[in-house]
Design brief:
By secondary structure, this protein is of the alpha+beta class. It is built from 7 helices and 14 strands. The chain has 2 domains: about 190 residues, Neurotransmitter-gated ion-channel ligand-binding domain (Acetylcholine Binding Protein, Chain: A, Distorted Sandwich); about 140 residues, Neurotransmitter-gated ion-channel transmembrane domain (Methane Monooxygenase Hydroxylase, Chain G, domain 1, Up-down Bundle). α2 runs antiparallel to α3, α2 packs parallel to α4 and α4 runs antiparallel to α7. It is a multi-pass membrane protein.
Length: about 425
């Protein structure tokens, strides 16, 4: 049946007061239910056991967590920051209202303002260093009372938590940070925690969480199966544990650590190809690369906490520094051997010169041998001939040391270094 304009206006005018009255009556009904529930409620007493058939049983608190943000993995202070939505659910039959006979009673009451008037589990996080609730623009929490007495408490928290890190495989390490939840005052006879297995994932994370960290990646799945019950002199306390596995990204350290140090070692090996008599060049090259390696080692260790064990990065930097120092010491040996042979050569030349002078005195017509070939040999050689000379094994012993070092040092040094990286990567993946 078509409705004309004036009739539609009258219908709306008549419906609005009715809707408002129904909303007001619903709000009044919730107030009546709350007043009835809290009239004889004592928040100082824990709820009856969840299992009604066991009068001495504990209150079972089901927990699920949403990880909203993971940030600031601080290796020096061994801590990390996380923002979560923390939810607890338990049964308190004293707050059940399904049996009270209210007409059209709501499925649940959302009443955050009565939180301070209800019993709530005294949960705390043992590894917490700092924490705060979010109050802008209102406190980010809610509390629901279901008709059967089930209480759902949800709150958004920002936490800074400690993480005991093992840096032996740094920077190819994977760190495990434990997030524990435990009751402060109630033993396992009073409160028992369990993950909420009614949901597919008791621990969820928002899409992208753990993928945007600068140096780490949060690995899946998050393990929640390990027991962490705390046994103390005052009793045993139920505990839940969430294990976060943080794998360090290798690409940053390849560009900032492994590649530069490898280049410094390679530059130090250039000394083997420089003429042994270029003392200034070879010494300057060796000292410069050694100081650069020392500076890099100090800068890298400044970003790490002082620990009593040897780290993988220490082994790498120590090996690099050993190769650089070895190249400098190799020239010291070559220079010493060359100087010793030069002194011997000068002594022999002096003897020959004296013998030659004696022959000239005895034989005035004596003619010295021709030295034209020496002048010809002193002319500049083509580039190809000089390169061929580098790869030709010399007879002179000091030059022979340089010759062997050109090829054997890189051949011997590369495999252990690559093995060190590969072994660390394999262990980190276990």
């Amino acid at each position: 049946m078509p409705v004309n304009g004036p009739s539609l206006v009258l219908l709306v005018i008549a419906w609005v007061p009715l809707a408002l009255s129904q909303g007001q009556s619903a709000g009044i009904q919730e107030q009546l239910i709350l007043n009835n529930l809290l009239a004889n409620y004592d928040m100082r007493v824990r709820p009856p056991p969840t299992n009604a058939s066991d009068p001495n049983g504990p209150v079972v608190v089901r927990v699920n967590i949403l990880i909203r943000m993971l940030s600031k993995i601080d290796v020096v202070n061994m801590e990390y920051s996380m923002q979560i939505t923390f939810r607890e659910e338990w049964m308190d039959r004293r707050l059940a209202y399904a049996h009270l006979g209210y007409q059209n009673a709501p499925k649940f009451l959302t009443v955050p303002h009565v939180k301070d008037n209800l019993w709530i589990p005294d949960s705390f996080f043992p590894t917490e260093k700092a924490a705060h609730r979010h109050l802008i623009d209102t406190e980010n929490m809610f509390l629901r009372i279901h008709a059967d007495g089930t209480i759902l408490y949800s709150v958004r928290l920002s936490l800074t938590l400690s993480c005991s890190m093992n840096l032996q495989l740094y920077p190819l390490d994977t760190q495990q940070c434990n997030f524990d939840l435990i009751s402060y005052a109630h033993t396992t006879k009073d409160i028992d925690y369990e993950w909420d297995k009614r949901v597919p994932q008791p621990v969820q994370k928002k899409p992208g969480v753990g993928d945007d960290l600068p140096n780490f990646m949060l690995m899946d799945p998050i393990n929640i199966n390990n027991d962490c019950t705390s046994h103390t002199n005052t009793g045993s306390y139920a505990c839940l544990r969430m294990e976060l596995r943080l794998k360090r990204q290798f690409s940053y350290y390849f560009l900032q650590l492994y590649f530069p140090t490898s280049m410094i070692v390679a530059v130090s090996w250039v000394s083997f190809w420089i003429d042994m008599h270029s003392t200034a060049g070879r010494v300057a090259l060796g000292v410069t690369t050694l100081l650069t390696m020392t500076t890099m080692q100090s800068a890298i260790n400044a970003k790490l906490p002082p620990v009593s064990y040897v780290k993988l990065v220490d082994a790498w930097l120590g090996a690099c520094q050993m190769f650089v120092f070895g190249a400098l010491m190799e020239y010291a040996v070559v220079s010493y051997q060359d100087s010793s042979r030069q002194a011997e050569r000068k002594r022999i030349q002096a003897i020959r010169k004296n013998q030659k002078r004696g022959r000239e005195i005895e034989n005035p017509g004596y003619q010295p041998p021709c030295t034209c070939h020496l002048i010809a040999d002193s002319e500049p050689q083509p580039l190809r001939a000089r390169i061929r000379k580098w790869f030709t094994k010399p007879d002179y012993f000091p030059a022979k040391i340089d010759y062997y070092c050109r090829f054997w040092v890189p051949t011997v040094a590369a495999p252990p270094q690559l093995h060190l990286i590969g072994r660390g990567a394999r262990v980190a993946d276990l």
